[in-house]
Amino acid sequence: MHNELVSVIITTFNGEKFIRESVDSIVRQTYKNLEIIVIDDGSNDNTADIIKSISDNRIKYFRTENNGHVSALNYGLSLSNGDYVSILDHDDIAMPQKIEKQMNCILSNPELGVISHFFLVMDERGKIIYEIHLPKEDEEIKKELCLQNIISHSGVLYKKKIVLEAGGYREKYGKIADYDLWLRLRLNTKFINLDEMLLKYRKHNNGQSFSLKSIKEANISILKVLEENISIIEPNYKNLKIFWQIRYGEKRISILKLCKTIKSRKYHIKKTLKFFILNLTSRDLKDYFYFYNPLLRFRYFITSSKINREIWKN
Question: For residue 128, how many other CB atoms are within 10 A of its CB?
Answer without folding.
Answer: 11
